[in-house]
Amino acid sequence: MNMATGRRLLAAARLLGIWLAAFVGVSCGAELSFTLEPSDIIAVQEQPLMLYCQVEGIPPITTQWRRNGVILLEDKNYTTFINGSLLIGRFQRRRSDGSSDEGDYECVAQNSFGLVVSRKAKVQAAKKKKPKQGTEDKCWWILSARCHPEASET
Ligand SMILES: *[C@@H]1O[C@H](CO)[C@@H](O)[C@H](O)[C@H]1NC(C)=O
Ligand SMILES: *[C@@H]1O[C@H](CO)[C@@H](O)[C@H](O)[C@H]1NC(C)=O
């Protein structure tokens, strides 16, 4: 093999390498990327709450959730689904152990190529609504008799 052929082969191999790298990178997604990230949410107390997270990449992919930076361990209070979603069985602002389900949640996904962290989703407990006093207030539970000043006076 002469020098020119060698150089040409080397150039061709290099080109193939670049092309392969681009192909693998684009079509298989060695890099993990989010197709669904959790969003800020107001949670209703004592109700189940689902947070969504979906990633694309080469399997196997494992998904974990963090609340305020601390990994949530799966127990009877939390379930992590295979599709990445997190289910809080019964949302509680104050748990008996002093912890709270409120906080910043983020989803952490990992495969053998790397790790990605989603945006932070702020989860807050809904404030209990008190029925408003006064006749000026527009009633959104208009079907309820308690809500109609005229109705309740008769
Ligand atoms: C993930 O799986 C759970 C349980 O099967 C389901 O309730 C939820 O809707 C799924 N999430 C998405 C984004 O499909
Ligand atoms: C679920 O949360 C409660 C606090 O409300 C805690 O006492 C309990 O240990 C948690 N469940 C598990 C399996 O850790």
UniProtKB/TrEMBL annotation:
InterPro entries: Ig-like_dom, Ig-like_dom_sf, Ig-like_fold
Superkingdom of this protein's organism: Eukaryota
Occurrences of domain Ig-like (ranges): 32-124
UniProt KW Ribosomal protein keyword: no
Signal peptide bounds: 1-29
A single BP term in Gene Ontology: cell-cell adhesion
Key words of the record: Disulfide bond, Immunoglobulin domain, Repeat, Signal
Family: Belongs to the immunoglobulin superfamily. DCC family.
Protein name: Ig-like domain-containing protein
Gene source species: Hemibagrus guttatus
Phylogenetic lineage: Eukaryota, Metazoa, Chordata, Craniata, Vertebrata
